[in-house]
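> example.struct
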């Protein structure tokens, strides 16, 4: 899995770009709806308040997705490290992790799954700085690191 770091990186970038596109489209639709409903009635005011709230939620999500894309851009997919840090791919006795941005499960071409997590994730705090062969405890379980890249 560590050898597929470039594919993993590109899959994460695709996932973030899809989020950006989805939130931008949703904001465009809400904006169109608000502009089309310029007639003033009590019902419209309630509806506009709801639309405005939805617009703000999507704007916040869009901002978060853009920040994730910016974070991803700081990762060199060709760089491999021995110690776990931002940008590492980690294989444990149970799962694969990509220390990058909090996207969640990423499906790979070979059918495997990798969990894209941020440096804020509790499990990352336990594995940070460790290397292949080390172990750490998470959720009362002993986890062995089988590869780092």
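> example.seq
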């Amino acid at each position: 899995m560590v050898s597929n770091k470039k594919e993993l990186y590109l899959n994460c970038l695709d996932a973030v770009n899809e989020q950006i596109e989805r939130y931008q489209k949703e904001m465009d639709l809400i904006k169109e709806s608000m502009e089309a409903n310029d007639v003033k009635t009590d019902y419209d005011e309630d509806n506009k308040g709801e639309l405005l709230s939805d617009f703000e939620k999507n704007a916040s999500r869009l901002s978060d997705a853009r920040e994730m894309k910016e974070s991803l851009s700081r990762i060199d997919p060709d760089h491999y490290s021995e110690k776990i840090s931002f940008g590492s791919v980690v294989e444990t006795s149970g799962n694969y992790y990509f220390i990058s941005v909090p996207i969640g499960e990423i499906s790979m071409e070979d059918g495997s799954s990798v969990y894209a997590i941020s440096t804020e994730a509790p499990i990352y705090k336990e594995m940070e700085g460790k290397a292949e062969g080390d172990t750490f405890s998470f959720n009362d379980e002993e986890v062995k690191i089988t590869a780092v890249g």
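> remarks
Strands lie at 89-92, 96-99, 104-107, 113-117, 135-138, 141-148.
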